[in-house]
Amino acid sequence: MCGIVGYVGPRDAVPVIVDGLRRLEYRGYDSAGIAVVANGRLERRRAVGKLRNLEESLRADPLKGDFGIGHTRWATHGRPSEENAHPHQDCHGRVVVVHNGIIENYLPLKQRLSRAGHRFVTQTDTEVVAHLVESHLDGPGSLETAVRRAMGEMEGIYALVLIDRDEPQRLVGARKGPPLVVGLGEGEQYLASDVPALLAHTRDFVFLGDGEVVVLTPQGVTLTDEGGRRLERAPQRITWDPVQAEKGGYRHFMLKEIHEQPTAVRDTLLGRFSLDEGEVHLEELGAAAEELRRARRVLLLACG
Ligand code: GLU
Questions:
Q1: pLDDT digit string (tens) for 51-82?
Q2: Ligand 1 lined by 124 (C-beta under 6 Å)
Q3: 77 in ligand 1 pocket by Cβ < 6 Å?
Q4: Chain centroid to CA 137: how far?
């Protein structure tokens, strides 16, 4: 589990994103990070530990952004460190990504991309997404297509939000498994893992379904299904107050926790089935490796 926030619009993106992350900090506190584009320049700032460390860094050395993305991490692949903190970027600092979930086939993808010349600097599964998308970029304006192509190659579960430094005022989000919601504003749009992150700004939400891709610009959002077909989905107006919203529509926190158990079990256990190089060598495990893979599949199916 982790928390994701994205913003595109006329305001400075940094305080909007940091405020949203504060409301999502329960989803992960291994590290926090932000990436924003201002005047065509991409800047990242990341800090290990709780969000307040990132906030302190931003106070000491302020950052401004025309649009951007942020993340609070609960590490599954790669230890909690600044280097492993999201957002992650491609070789040229052009594509940046925040991710909630696990890219199960990240090792073969990483090996293939490394052979093709991509340079990896973290131990995370997420960094593969940035390089994979980079490998599919055709030219200006191709981020959405590149994300869709990358989705065709990735196995696992993910909520993703990406920026291409060279596509001004545009965010691309994608979901397969973990939640992702779009908040609709007037001349500004938001993305987040959960409704409470955005309630200070909007009450109108579009909930992304599995396999869907969304493109956000200040003027509006475009939602498409797995095959790239345009979807029309009426926004839902959320009338909960912020406390009710944190209860996710349930009457009591206990009820919410009960209903969140499958996700919590999945998120907790899947991260422990580490098949990283140097930790578990599949060829040495022999038949046990297949058992492990089966157990992961069963867990994924059981936990929805
Ligand atoms: N697998 C990613 C990582 O370890 C994302 C973790 C998450 O969803 O919290 O950085």
A1: 999 999 999 999 999 999 999 999 999 999 99
A2: yes
A3: yes
A4: 19
